[in-house]
Amino acid sequence: MTGLADTKLLTADDLLRLSSQGVRGELVQGVLHETMASGHRHGKIAVNLVTELNNFAKPRKLGTLVASDSGVWLERDPDTVREPDVAFTSAEKIPLDAEIDGYAEVVPDLVVEIVSPSDSHRWARDRAQMWLGHGAPLVWIVHPDTRTIDVYRPGTDPTTLQEDDSLNGHEVLPGFTCSVSSVFA
Fold first, then answer.
1. In degrees rounded to 5, what are phi and psi of residue 70?
2. What is the pTM of this model?
3. Of 3, 84, 130, 142, which alpha carbon lies 20 to 30 A from 45's?
């Protein structure tokens, strides 16, 4: 009989190797959690957010934006590597000219997770709390079905924004705003 103790835990390097073989997923304390492509609507929302954020951050040289396949190395021994759908990391944490092979080992300043049809409300809340617990100061959970965005910040209750509201960058991206409706357009 084999148990969890007999299971070989994977490392971040193993995950990179598997990724080159077409396996997509995250590591949670050394255990692979495979993920699947999330669909057209999910991708469109991600591009809309990246476009809005990049149009603000890039000319101001504020930091770097990445998409889901980049991964963030959060824990070692056993390794945890998570894939936010969109992440912004300030230039203070990762210099603009940094070339990172593999996974960044810095928690992003802004994490965006787009809820897939198979994801529960509990999954979304737990995901936001996980990022906050690792030190992300701002998390946006995007709900395509309700066309709303939950905003999470440490020490405050989450706020749900509707389509007629404006999304803002708070202290992470001061001065950034976009309409919630533009995220879903």
1. -75, -40
2. 0.92
3. 130
User: Whose structure tokens read 């040289």?
Assistant: 61
Token pair for 30: 């050394």
Helix (H) or strand (E) holding 161: strand 159-161
Rounded to whole angstroms, how far apart are CA atoms 49 and 179?
Answer: 11
pLDDT tens by residue, 18-71 = 988 989 899 999 999 988 788 899 999 999 999 999 999 999 999 999 988 889
User: Of 84, 103, 107, 102, which Cα lies nearest the Cα of 35?
Assistant: 84
No. of H helices and E strands in the chain? 4, 12
Dihedral, CA of residue 16, residue 18, residue 21 and residue 23, to nearest 10: -110
* Amino acid letter for position 137: P
